[in-house]
Specification:
Strand order of the largest sheet: 16-17-18-22-1-21
CATH superfamily of the largest domain: RNA polymerase II/Efflux pump adaptor protein, barrel-sandwich hybrid domain
Number of helices: 4
Amino acid sequence: MMIRKFFRCWSGWAGIGVGVALIFLSGCGKNPESPGKPSEATRTVRVVTVAPVPIWDEEEVVGGVQAAQRAVLSAKVTGVVDTIRVTPGTRVTHGDPLVTIDAREIRARLDQAVAAQEQAQKDFARSQRLLQSGSATRQEFDAATARLRTADAGLVEAKTMLGYTEIPAPFDGVVTRKLAEVGDLASPGKPLLEVENSSLLRFEAEVPEALIGRVAMQSRVPVQVGAAHAHLQGVVSEIAPSASAASRTYLVKLDLPAAEGLRAGQFGRARIPVKERPAVLVPETAVVRRGQLEMVFVVEGGRARLRLVKTGRVFDGGVEILSGLSGGEAVVVEDASQLRDGAHVEGMK
């Protein structure tokens, strides 16, 4: 019996090499649609019908995260730095004393102002009594009044100057830089400390003049900060009215929401929208990657058909498909990596 089957098979493969004929020999005489063999089970899969949706082409600009509230502290009076109570990284509260300037000279001036004010008060009181008794002229009384006012103003000035020897924190924040040491000579305008409010951050970028027309106040711009692994929506809060003469760019500031790991000084990129166009998007779970190949499974006629695709940018709504899909296909979006080409499936939305 086996010999007869062999010759029937051999006659059907005349002209084909012996090696090829032997490959098919084991299946010759078998019916692939044998009624006794169970058919492949149909698998239920979740699908999404894709359709072109409008997206924006974007241009990237680089920038950095900065504190929205930042201050460089310096002395208002000249003197030797007596005490520095903080170091970089110290958190401070509004009004906390941070630096003390040697106040011996200013205290001496205050003592002089107090003595002058006391003497002026006595002269004024005596002049007032003499005027009432007729022993002093009105001109002498007016002069005593002027001296008292001058002494009062000098006392207020001396007290104010003494208050300048204590440099307080201008707001709640953290000390980021220490620019002086105890014993240094402090003078008006000379930086001593830098303080930032780390709870309020913004993104600052130089936007080329070709793109500045696409940026509007209070508009939302996507910002990516790699070090913090953060994808944020910045809100435009400031736009420089004029461009830099050297770079022809405009400084744009975007307020950022709070995010874990976000710190001042980090590098980031903002994406400025340029033009709108249609694109096909699929969920990220629909894309199967095997080596350098990218593919999706499309349900056609009750079977899963493999489609090689090329992906583009990633959006909140999914991955852009540059080629391989045109829209209208039912794409498998769950457990796609477990399917094979031609598998029996039933789509479920």
